[in-house]
Every structure is written in C-alpha cells, then in structure tokens.
C-alpha cells in the first residue's frame, strides 16, 4: 500500500475511534442534542466508539457503571435476570438512545444487563465527563429529566399492559410498538427491522415461549402477520392495533 493510502486509512480508523457528535445524524434525539459545538468539541476527547458483535454484552447486571453509553448504530436490548435465572427484557435501544444512565446518575450498580442484538457501534463517555455536564449544563439536565420521565411512563404502561390485557392483546401490542420503533416499509406491509428470537418476543410481551409461539401462529393464520425468512411482516398494522386495543396516531 502506498504511504498516502496508508495515512488515509489510519486517519479513517482514528476518526472512527473518536467520532464527532456534531456530525451524528441521531444527535437531535440523543441526550447530547442540547449541547453546542464548543461543548461537543470539549466532550470529544472523553468519548470512544466501541464495536460489539451480535450477542456481546455491553455491561452486566451488578457491575458498577464507569460511564454512559449511547447507541450510534445497531440495536441493543436491556434485560434483567431474575433469581430463577429467567430473563425479562426491560426495553430496546436504537441509534441515539442512551444506555446505563439511571445507574450512573443514581450512583448504584446496574440492575440490568445490555446486549447487542446485532453488530452495533456504541459511544462511551467516561463518568467524570458526564457528571461535569450535569453540573454545568442546565439544558443537558433538563434533557436527562425528560428521558427519565419517559422511562417512568413506559414502565407504567407496561404495568398496565400486564395487569389489564390478556396475552394475545399483549403480543399484538408488542408487535405494533416494535413496528413503530423499528419497522421498515416493504411491499405488502411493515417489516420488523429488528432481530428478536421468539423467546425475546415472549419476554417483551410478558409471557412464556410456548404461549408466544401459539399467539404468533394464530395471527399468521388470521393474516395479521406474515413470515418472511426469519422476519415478521405486519400486512396491516392498524388491524393488529385493534386486536391490541391500541389507538394509533
């Protein structure tokens, strides 16, 4: 390889090791969307881009947080493991979403684990730099409070869902919400653009694998779902939303 080509490749690797938040297309929805260019420039030396393989852990339940994670590309699941060894998915995170902030700001160990659902790139900002932002940037603190309130609302919704809805409706609601968050338009419907196993779908819907498989099979027979390889397609999300008793916007 010519020297100029080698230099270009090294510069490319360097920029990926420490990407610019200012150029991130997900900046607007992230915790860092309120920071100005100067703030982001000061943050850059304290941020590293980490790459994770599918099913690789970002952090484990019980570990002590050393910083804040923000998904740059890919998808991550956050899940808790009970005393019986069973996992329960708490939420899913995509590009622009922060991970691990509640434990970091509460100064406590993680109460859940985070695992890449596919090859993912995640930015990591060290603890001291994030805490400094909290002290010096009121708008950053306000954005954090918005995220925490959103988390609380979603947790309340899940409690309501589990308490008031039968499994079939919970599964339908789970699929509709996944389509809204990760769906891709394809001929004949909306494809779930996320690689979840049937077990993971069961965990999201708060049921066991056998029941989840039965619900999905019934929905396929009723033409509410269609399988395409390992993917699920919603031919008519509104019809599935009616099964879930959801009011779509």
Protein described:
- With 249 residues, the chain is of the alpha+beta class.
- The protein folds into two domains: 3-161, Jelly Rolls, CATH 2.60.120; 166-244, Arc Repressor Mutant, subunit A (Orthogonal Bundle).
- The protein contains nine helices and twelve strands.
- It has helices spanning 3-17, 37-43, 101-106, 127-136, 138-164, 167-182, 198-205, 209-221, 237-244, and strands spanning 47-52, 57-59, 67-73, 76-81, 87-93, 98-99, 113-116, 120-126, 183-186, 189-192, 226-228, 231-234.
- A four-stranded antiparallel β-sheet has the order 1-8-3-6. Strands 2-7-4-5 form a four-stranded antiparallel β-sheet. The protein has a four-stranded antiparallel β-sheet with strand order 9-10-12-11.
- Helix 6 (167-182) packs antiparallel against helix 9 (237-244).
- It starts with a helix and ends in a 5-residue tail after the last helix.
Strand and helix layout:
Elements: H1 3-17, H2 37-43, E1 47-52, E2 57-59, E3 67-73, E4 76-81, E5 87-93, E6 98-99, H3 101-106, E7 113-116, E8 120-126, H4 127-136, H5 138-164, H6 167-182, E9 183-186, E10 189-192, H7 198-205, H8 209-221, E11 226-228, E12 231-234, H9 237-244
Antiparallel strand pairs: 1-8, 2-7, 3-6, 3-8, 4-5, 4-7, 9-10, 10-12, 11-12
CATH architecture of the largest domain: Sandwich
Low-pLDDT parts are 1-15
Q: How many beta-strand elements? A: 12
Query: What is the overall pLDDT average?
Result: 85
């Amino acid at each position: 390889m010519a020297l100029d080509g080698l230099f270009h490749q090294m510069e490319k690797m360097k920029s990926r090791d420490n990407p610019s938040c200012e150029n991130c297309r997900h900046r607007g929805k992230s915790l860092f969307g309120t920071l100005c260019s100067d703030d982001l420039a000061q943050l850059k030396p304290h941020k590293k881009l980490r790459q994770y393989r599918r099913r690789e852990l970002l952090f484990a339940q019980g570990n002590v947080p050393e910083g804040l994670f923000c998904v740059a590309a890919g998808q991550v699941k956050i899940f808790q493991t009970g005393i019986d060894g069973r996992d329960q998915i708490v939420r899913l995170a995509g590009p622009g979403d922060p991970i691990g902030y509640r434990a970091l700001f509460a100064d406590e160990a993680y109460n859940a684990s985070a695992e890449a659902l596919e090859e993912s790139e995640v930015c990591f900002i060290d603890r001291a730099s994030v805490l400094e932002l909290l002290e010096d940037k009121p708008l950053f603190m306000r954005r954090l409070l918005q995220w925490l309130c959103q988390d609380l609302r979603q947790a309340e919704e899940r409690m309501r869902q589990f308490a008031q809805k039968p499994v079939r409706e919970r599964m339908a609601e789970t699929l509709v919400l996944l389509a809204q968050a990760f769906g891709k338009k394809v001929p004949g419907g909306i494809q779930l653009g996320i690689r979840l196993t049937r077990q993971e779908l069961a965990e999201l819907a708060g049921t066991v694998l056998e029941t989840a498989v039965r619900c999905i099979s019934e929905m396929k027979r009723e033409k509410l779902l269609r399988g395409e390889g390992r993917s699920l397609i919603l031919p008519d999300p509104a019809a599935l939303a009616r099964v879930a008793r959801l009011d779509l916007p």
